[in-house]
Specification:
This protein has nine helices and seven strands. It has a seven-stranded mixed β-sheet with strand order 3-2-1-4-5-7-6, sandwiched between helices. The chain is globular. The longest helix is centred in the N-terminal third of the chain and has 18 residues, at 3-20. Helices cover 40% and strands 23% of the residues. The protein has a single domain (3-218), classed as Vaccinia Virus protein VP39 (Rossmann fold, 3-Layer(aba) Sandwich). The chain is of the alpha/beta class. The protein starts with a helix and ends with a strand. Residues 48-173 form the Methyltransferase domain. Keywords: Methyltransferase, Transferase. It holds the Pfam family Methyltransf_31. This is Type 11 methyltransferase. GO terms for molecular function: methyltransferase activity.
Length: 219
Protein backbone atom coordinates (compact mmCIF):
# COMPACT_ATOMS: atom_id res chain seq x y z
CA UNK A 1 0.00 0.00 0.00
CA UNK A 2 1.38 3.42 -0.91
CA UNK A 3 1.91 6.20 1.60
CA UNK A 4 -1.10 8.21 0.39
CA UNK A 5 -3.78 5.53 1.02
CA UNK A 6 -2.15 4.74 4.37
CA UNK A 7 -2.32 8.39 5.39
CA UNK A 8 -5.92 8.65 4.18
CA UNK A 9 -6.92 5.62 6.25
CA UNK A 10 -5.06 6.89 9.30
CA UNK A 11 -6.70 10.31 9.00
CA UNK A 12 -10.14 8.69 8.63
CA UNK A 13 -9.68 6.54 11.74
CA UNK A 14 -8.31 9.44 13.74
CA UNK A 15 -11.40 11.44 12.79
CA UNK A 16 -13.72 8.68 14.01
CA UNK A 17 -11.90 8.12 17.28
CA UNK A 18 -10.67 11.61 18.12
CA UNK A 19 -13.23 11.76 20.95
CA UNK A 20 -14.68 8.24 20.87
CA UNK A 21 -11.44 6.80 22.23
CA UNK A 22 -12.18 8.29 25.65
CA UNK A 23 -15.37 6.25 26.02
CA UNK A 24 -14.55 3.42 23.62
CA UNK A 25 -13.98 0.64 26.14
CA UNK A 26 -16.91 1.65 28.32
CA UNK A 27 -19.36 1.78 25.42
CA UNK A 28 -18.08 -1.15 23.33
CA UNK A 29 -18.39 -3.72 26.10
CA UNK A 30 -22.13 -3.70 25.44
CA UNK A 31 -21.89 -4.88 21.83
CA UNK A 32 -18.42 -6.22 21.00
CA UNK A 33 -19.31 -9.72 22.14
CA UNK A 34 -16.96 -12.69 21.97
CA UNK A 35 -13.71 -10.85 22.60
CA UNK A 36 -13.02 -12.56 25.91
CA UNK A 37 -13.96 -15.95 24.45
CA UNK A 38 -11.36 -15.33 21.75
CA UNK A 39 -8.73 -14.37 24.34
CA UNK A 40 -9.47 -17.50 26.37
CA UNK A 41 -8.81 -19.56 23.26
CA UNK A 42 -5.36 -18.13 22.58
CA UNK A 43 -3.57 -20.43 25.03
CA UNK A 44 -0.08 -19.38 23.91
CA UNK A 45 2.89 -21.65 24.65
CA UNK A 46 5.52 -20.64 27.25
CA UNK A 47 7.40 -17.44 26.40
CA UNK A 48 5.17 -16.94 23.35
CA UNK A 49 5.01 -13.85 21.17
CA UNK A 50 1.44 -12.62 20.62
CA UNK A 51 0.34 -9.90 18.18
CA UNK A 52 -2.91 -7.96 17.97
CA UNK A 53 -3.71 -6.46 14.57
CA UNK A 54 -5.72 -3.27 15.12
CA UNK A 55 -5.04 -2.97 18.85
CA UNK A 56 -7.14 0.16 19.42
CA UNK A 57 -7.08 1.26 23.06
CA UNK A 58 -4.98 -1.71 24.17
CA UNK A 59 -7.90 -3.25 26.08
CA UNK A 60 -7.43 -6.75 24.65
CA UNK A 61 -3.64 -6.71 24.99
CA UNK A 62 -3.88 -5.76 28.66
CA UNK A 63 -6.41 -8.50 29.42
CA UNK A 64 -4.35 -11.04 27.50
CA UNK A 65 -1.18 -10.01 29.36
CA UNK A 66 -2.98 -10.66 32.65
CA UNK A 67 -4.24 -14.06 31.48
CA UNK A 68 -0.88 -15.19 30.12
CA UNK A 69 1.90 -13.76 32.31
CA UNK A 70 4.66 -15.69 30.54
CA UNK A 71 3.92 -14.28 27.06
CA UNK A 72 5.17 -11.14 25.31
CA UNK A 73 2.62 -8.95 23.54
CA UNK A 74 2.71 -6.65 20.54
CA UNK A 75 0.10 -4.55 18.81
CA UNK A 76 -0.30 -2.04 16.03
CA UNK A 77 -3.01 0.29 14.83
CA UNK A 78 -3.35 2.74 11.97
CA UNK A 79 -4.87 5.42 14.23
CA UNK A 80 -2.26 7.49 16.01
CA UNK A 81 -4.88 8.78 18.45
CA UNK A 82 -5.95 5.30 19.47
CA UNK A 83 -2.29 4.44 20.00
CA UNK A 84 -1.90 7.38 22.36
CA UNK A 85 -4.77 6.01 24.42
CA UNK A 86 -3.33 2.49 24.24
CA UNK A 87 0.07 3.63 25.46
CA UNK A 88 -1.50 5.47 28.39
CA UNK A 89 -3.64 2.46 29.30
CA UNK A 90 -0.69 0.08 29.07
CA UNK A 91 1.44 2.33 31.27
CA UNK A 92 -1.40 2.64 33.80
CA UNK A 93 -1.67 -1.15 33.94
CA UNK A 94 2.09 -1.48 34.48
CA UNK A 95 2.74 -3.52 31.33
CA UNK A 96 5.18 -1.26 29.46
CA UNK A 97 7.83 -4.01 29.51
CA UNK A 98 5.50 -6.73 28.23
CA UNK A 99 3.37 -4.90 25.67
CA UNK A 100 4.75 -2.91 22.75
CA UNK A 101 2.48 -0.95 20.42
CA UNK A 102 3.35 0.94 17.24
CA UNK A 103 1.66 2.49 14.23
CA UNK A 104 1.07 0.08 11.37
CA UNK A 105 -1.21 -0.82 8.47
CA UNK A 106 -2.98 -4.20 8.67
CA UNK A 107 -3.06 -4.52 4.88
CA UNK A 108 0.71 -4.19 4.51
CA UNK A 109 2.98 -4.90 7.47
CA UNK A 110 6.24 -6.60 8.32
CA UNK A 111 6.59 -8.08 11.81
CA UNK A 112 10.35 -7.77 11.51
CA UNK A 113 10.24 -4.10 10.55
CA UNK A 114 7.63 -3.13 13.15
CA UNK A 115 8.91 -5.10 16.15
CA UNK A 116 12.12 -6.89 15.23
CA UNK A 117 10.17 -10.15 15.57
CA UNK A 118 10.32 -12.55 12.59
CA UNK A 119 7.02 -14.30 13.37
CA UNK A 120 4.45 -14.82 16.13
CA UNK A 121 3.01 -17.80 17.99
CA UNK A 122 -0.42 -16.19 18.12
CA UNK A 123 -2.08 -13.36 16.21
CA UNK A 124 -5.56 -12.05 16.93
CA UNK A 125 -7.88 -9.58 15.21
CA UNK A 126 -10.82 -8.29 17.22
CA UNK A 127 -13.59 -6.32 15.47
CA UNK A 128 -11.13 -4.72 13.07
CA UNK A 129 -11.76 -6.43 9.73
CA UNK A 130 -15.20 -4.83 9.64
CA UNK A 131 -13.50 -1.42 9.65
CA UNK A 132 -10.92 -2.09 6.94
CA UNK A 133 -12.25 -1.61 3.38
CA UNK A 134 -9.62 -3.88 1.72
CA UNK A 135 -10.02 -6.45 4.53
CA UNK A 136 -9.19 -9.37 2.26
CA UNK A 137 -5.58 -8.14 2.14
CA UNK A 138 -5.23 -8.58 5.90
CA UNK A 139 -5.75 -12.35 5.99
CA UNK A 140 -2.65 -13.51 4.04
CA UNK A 141 -0.55 -10.85 5.80
CA UNK A 142 -1.55 -12.23 9.20
CA UNK A 143 -1.07 -15.87 8.25
CA UNK A 144 2.37 -15.14 6.80
CA UNK A 145 3.36 -13.51 10.10
CA UNK A 146 2.67 -16.74 12.04
CA UNK A 147 5.24 -19.31 13.06
CA UNK A 148 4.62 -22.88 11.90
CA UNK A 149 2.14 -24.32 14.39
CA UNK A 150 0.93 -20.84 15.29
CA UNK A 151 -2.67 -19.70 15.10
CA UNK A 152 -4.69 -16.71 13.95
CA UNK A 153 -7.82 -15.85 15.97
CA UNK A 154 -10.55 -13.58 14.59
CA UNK A 155 -13.74 -12.26 16.19
CA UNK A 156 -16.01 -9.77 14.43
CA UNK A 157 -19.56 -8.92 13.50
CA UNK A 158 -21.46 -11.58 11.60
CA UNK A 159 -24.76 -11.47 9.66
CA UNK A 160 -27.21 -11.67 12.63
CA UNK A 161 -29.29 -14.24 10.74
CA UNK A 162 -30.68 -15.69 13.96
CA UNK A 163 -31.81 -12.34 15.37
CA UNK A 164 -34.94 -10.24 14.69
CA UNK A 165 -34.91 -8.23 11.46
CA UNK A 166 -35.49 -4.94 13.31
CA UNK A 167 -32.44 -5.60 15.47
CA UNK A 168 -30.25 -6.32 12.45
CA UNK A 169 -31.45 -3.15 10.68
CA UNK A 170 -30.89 -0.96 13.73
CA UNK A 171 -27.45 -2.43 14.36
CA UNK A 172 -26.33 -1.99 10.75
CA UNK A 173 -27.50 1.62 10.70
CA UNK A 174 -25.63 2.39 13.90
CA UNK A 175 -22.45 0.62 12.79
CA UNK A 176 -22.45 2.50 9.49
CA UNK A 177 -21.94 5.76 11.40
CA UNK A 178 -18.53 4.44 12.43
CA UNK A 179 -17.58 3.00 9.02
CA UNK A 180 -18.18 -0.54 10.28
CA UNK A 181 -19.51 -3.16 7.86
CA UNK A 182 -19.90 -6.87 8.75
CA UNK A 183 -18.02 -9.08 6.29
CA UNK A 184 -20.49 -11.65 4.98
CA UNK A 185 -17.78 -13.26 2.84
CA UNK A 186 -15.29 -13.75 5.69
CA UNK A 187 -15.72 -17.51 6.12
CA UNK A 188 -15.40 -18.24 2.40
CA UNK A 189 -12.41 -15.93 1.97
CA UNK A 190 -10.70 -17.24 5.09
CA UNK A 191 -11.09 -20.84 3.95
CA UNK A 192 -9.79 -19.95 0.49
CA UNK A 193 -6.66 -18.24 1.81
CA UNK A 194 -6.09 -20.95 4.42
CA UNK A 195 -6.24 -23.66 1.75
CA UNK A 196 -3.74 -21.78 -0.39
CA UNK A 197 -1.36 -21.54 2.54
CA UNK A 198 -1.86 -25.06 3.87
CA UNK A 199 -3.71 -24.06 7.04
CA UNK A 200 -6.73 -25.50 8.84
CA UNK A 201 -9.78 -23.42 9.82
CA UNK A 202 -12.51 -23.64 12.43
CA UNK A 203 -15.39 -21.18 12.14
CA UNK A 204 -18.17 -20.59 14.69
CA UNK A 205 -21.20 -18.32 14.72
CA UNK A 206 -21.97 -16.91 18.16
CA UNK A 207 -25.05 -15.41 19.85
CA UNK A 208 -27.58 -16.01 17.08
CA UNK A 209 -24.98 -15.21 14.42
CA UNK A 210 -24.34 -11.83 16.03
CA UNK A 211 -20.60 -12.49 15.81
CA UNK A 212 -18.29 -15.04 14.31
CA UNK A 213 -15.18 -16.58 15.81
CA UNK A 214 -12.53 -18.14 13.58
CA UNK A 215 -9.25 -19.89 14.27
CA UNK A 216 -6.65 -20.61 11.59
CA UNK A 217 -3.79 -22.98 12.44
CA UNK A 218 -0.63 -22.79 10.37
CA UNK A 219 0.97 -26.14 9.68
Amino acid sequence: MSAAPHEDAAHHMDGIYRYQRYIYDLSRKYFLFGRDTMLDGLKPPPSASVLEVGCGTGRNLILAARRYPDAHFYGFDISRMMLETAEANIARAGFEKRIKVVEGDATNFSAQELFGVPAFDRIFISYSLSMIPPWQQVLPQAIDALKPGGSLHIVDFSEQTGLPRWFKSALRAWLKKFSVEPRAELEAELRRVAEEKGCTVTFERLFGDYAHLAVVIKR
